Amino acid sequence: MIEISTSPATTTLVIAGDLDLAERDQFPEIAARVVGLRRQLLVIDMCRVTFMDSTGAAFLISLADSGRKRGGATVLRGCDDRDLFVLEVCGALDLFRIDVDHRCDPPAGANAS
Q1: Cα(91)–Cα(110) distance, rounded to whole angstroms?
Q2: How would residue 113 be classed by pLDDT, with cut points 50, 70 and 90?
Q3: Residue 14: inside a domain, yes or no?
Q4: Overall number of domains in the chain
Q5: In a domain, 65, yes or no
Q6: What CATH number is given to the structural domain containing 45?
Q7: SS (H, E, C) the chain
Q8: Is the pLDDT of residue 14 over 50?
Q9: pLDDT digits (tens, 9 = 90+) for 45-97
Q10: Is residue 108 part of a domain?
Q11: Sheet of 97-99: strands edge to edge?
Q12: CB 93 within 8 Å of CB 102
């Protein structure tokens, strides 16, 4: 599931579940909506991503590349090491700013230890 929200300067995508080949049918519509919003900053919240393959990485790369061509920036927050590794293997990590300060909320129903 991918949710889109906006503010005057920012578009935020909140991604939950798998970001992979099985989800690719929704990528063109989402990319068109994000590009059409023409915000300078795209924040991609990956706190609830459970798996990302090269198809999901290609989707993120296309979003970042579109934004960069318009002079914008793309920030990844909540990315785990394996997602960053996939982007690094694709040679695209430098397209993104990584929010190292963001802390994901615990999953709903999680007990605090």
Answers
A1: 35
A2: very low
A3: yes
A4: 1
A5: yes
A6: 3.30.750.24
A7: CEEEEECCCEEEEEEEEEECHHHHHHHHHHHHHHHHHCCCEEEEEEEEEEEECHHHHHHHHHHHHHHHHCCCEEEEECCCHHHHHHHHHCCCHHHCEEECCCCCCCCCCCCCC
A8: yes
A9: 999 999 998 899 999 999 999 989 888 999 999 988 999 999 998 899 999 99
A10: no
A11: 2-6, 10-19, 41-52, 73-77, 97-99
A12: no
Domain annotation covers residue 104: no
Beta strand pairing call for 2-6 and 10-19: antiparallel
What is the residue-averaged pLDDT of the chain? 88
| pLDDT surpassing 50 at residue 15 | yes
Structural domain that includes position 14: 2-99
Record the pTM.
0.86
Instruction: Find all residues with CB under 8 Å of 71, minimum gap 6, and list them.
Output: 40
